[in-house]
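cron nightly-structures :: item 1 of 1
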Amino acid sequence: MKRFSLVVICLVVLGLVASATLVQAQENITGKWYFTVVTPKGSGNPVVTFKQDGEKLTGQYSGSIGEAPLTGTLKGKDLVFQFTTDPKKGPAIYTGKVDGKTMSGTVDFAGIAKGTWEGKKIK
Protein backbone atom coordinates (compact mmCIF):
# COMPACT_ATOMS: atom_id res chain seq x y z
CA MET A 1 0.00 0.00 0.00
CA LYS A 2 2.88 2.37 0.77
CA ARG A 3 4.39 1.66 -2.64
CA PHE A 4 1.06 2.41 -4.36
CA SER A 5 0.74 5.71 -2.46
CA LEU A 6 4.28 6.69 -3.40
CA VAL A 7 3.60 5.94 -7.08
CA VAL A 8 0.40 8.03 -7.01
CA ILE A 9 2.21 10.96 -5.36
CA CYS A 10 5.02 10.78 -7.95
CA LEU A 11 2.51 10.79 -10.81
CA VAL A 12 0.66 13.78 -9.35
CA VAL A 13 3.91 15.74 -8.95
CA LEU A 14 4.99 14.89 -12.51
CA GLY A 15 1.59 16.01 -13.80
CA LEU A 16 1.85 19.33 -11.99
CA VAL A 17 5.35 19.95 -13.33
CA ALA A 18 4.24 19.12 -16.89
CA SER A 19 1.22 21.43 -16.58
CA ALA A 20 3.37 24.29 -15.30
CA THR A 21 5.77 23.82 -18.21
CA LEU A 22 2.94 23.97 -20.75
CA VAL A 23 1.48 27.11 -19.19
CA GLN A 24 4.88 28.86 -19.21
CA ALA A 25 5.46 27.95 -22.88
CA GLN A 26 2.37 29.85 -24.10
CA GLU A 27 3.25 33.30 -25.41
CA ASN A 28 0.88 36.26 -25.28
CA ILE A 29 1.03 38.37 -28.45
CA THR A 30 -1.90 40.73 -27.80
CA GLY A 31 -1.00 44.20 -29.08
CA LYS A 32 0.49 45.98 -32.11
CA TRP A 33 3.38 44.52 -34.10
CA TYR A 34 5.59 46.14 -36.76
CA PHE A 35 6.38 43.66 -39.53
CA THR A 36 9.05 43.52 -42.20
CA VAL A 37 7.91 41.33 -45.09
CA VAL A 38 10.26 40.39 -47.95
CA THR A 39 9.14 38.68 -51.19
CA PRO A 40 10.69 38.43 -54.67
CA LYS A 41 8.07 40.98 -55.78
CA GLY A 42 9.07 43.56 -53.15
CA SER A 43 8.98 44.29 -49.46
CA GLY A 44 6.71 46.10 -47.04
CA ASN A 45 6.16 47.07 -43.44
CA PRO A 46 2.60 46.34 -42.34
CA VAL A 47 1.29 46.83 -38.84
CA VAL A 48 -0.56 43.84 -37.39
CA THR A 49 -2.74 44.06 -34.30
CA PHE A 50 -3.48 40.83 -32.44
CA LYS A 51 -6.04 39.99 -29.77
CA GLN A 52 -5.39 36.65 -28.11
CA ASP A 53 -7.90 34.50 -26.26
CA GLY A 54 -6.10 31.30 -25.23
CA GLU A 55 -4.86 29.78 -28.48
CA LYS A 56 -7.34 31.75 -30.63
CA LEU A 57 -6.23 34.91 -32.43
CA THR A 58 -8.22 37.72 -34.00
CA GLY A 59 -7.02 41.12 -35.11
CA GLN A 60 -6.33 43.50 -37.95
CA TYR A 61 -3.77 43.64 -40.78
CA SER A 62 -2.89 47.07 -42.20
CA GLY A 63 -0.33 47.34 -44.99
CA SER A 64 0.42 48.13 -48.62
CA ILE A 65 -1.96 45.43 -49.91
CA GLY A 66 -4.86 46.84 -47.88
CA GLU A 67 -6.57 46.34 -44.55
CA ALA A 68 -8.36 43.24 -43.36
CA PRO A 69 -9.48 41.38 -40.24
CA LEU A 70 -7.34 38.36 -39.40
CA THR A 71 -7.83 35.05 -37.63
CA GLY A 72 -5.37 32.44 -36.45
CA THR A 73 -3.91 30.35 -33.68
CA LEU A 74 -0.94 30.44 -31.35
CA LYS A 75 -0.06 27.05 -29.90
CA GLY A 76 2.92 27.41 -27.59
CA LYS A 77 5.33 29.35 -29.80
CA ASP A 78 3.81 28.18 -33.12
CA LEU A 79 1.89 30.94 -34.89
CA VAL A 80 -0.44 30.71 -37.90
CA PHE A 81 -2.72 33.54 -39.04
CA GLN A 82 -4.43 34.59 -42.23
CA PHE A 83 -6.40 37.40 -43.80
CA THR A 84 -7.87 38.24 -47.19
CA THR A 85 -7.65 41.72 -48.70
CA ASP A 86 -8.94 40.62 -52.13
CA PRO A 87 -11.35 37.66 -52.18
CA LYS A 88 -10.55 37.03 -55.88
CA LYS A 89 -6.87 36.40 -55.04
CA GLY A 90 -7.29 34.39 -51.82
CA PRO A 91 -5.77 34.56 -48.35
CA ALA A 92 -2.32 35.54 -47.16
CA ILE A 93 -1.18 32.85 -44.74
CA TYR A 94 1.57 33.64 -42.23
CA THR A 95 3.32 30.80 -40.38
CA GLY A 96 6.07 31.26 -37.82
CA LYS A 97 7.45 31.19 -34.29
CA VAL A 98 7.07 33.68 -31.45
CA ASP A 99 9.92 34.51 -29.09
CA GLY A 100 8.82 37.09 -26.54
CA LYS A 101 8.60 40.47 -28.28
CA THR A 102 9.76 39.15 -31.65
CA MET A 103 8.39 36.68 -34.18
CA SER A 104 9.41 35.44 -37.62
CA GLY A 105 8.44 32.98 -40.32
CA THR A 106 7.17 32.55 -43.86
CA VAL A 107 4.20 33.92 -45.76
CA ASP A 108 2.25 32.56 -48.73
CA PHE A 109 0.17 35.12 -50.64
CA ALA A 110 -2.43 32.72 -52.10
CA GLY A 111 0.22 30.90 -54.15
CA ILE A 112 1.03 34.10 -56.07
CA ALA A 113 4.12 34.99 -54.03
CA LYS A 114 5.97 33.62 -51.03
CA GLY A 115 8.33 35.35 -48.67
CA THR A 116 9.72 35.75 -45.20
CA TRP A 117 8.71 38.05 -42.39
CA GLU A 118 9.83 39.34 -39.00
CA GLY A 119 7.73 41.14 -36.43
CA LYS A 120 8.56 43.28 -33.41
CA LYS A 121 6.05 44.25 -30.74
CA ILE A 122 5.47 48.01 -30.58
CA LYS A 123 2.59 48.18 -28.03
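cron nightly-structures :: done
Residues 27-121 form a domain with the Lipocalin fold (CATH 2.40.128.120).
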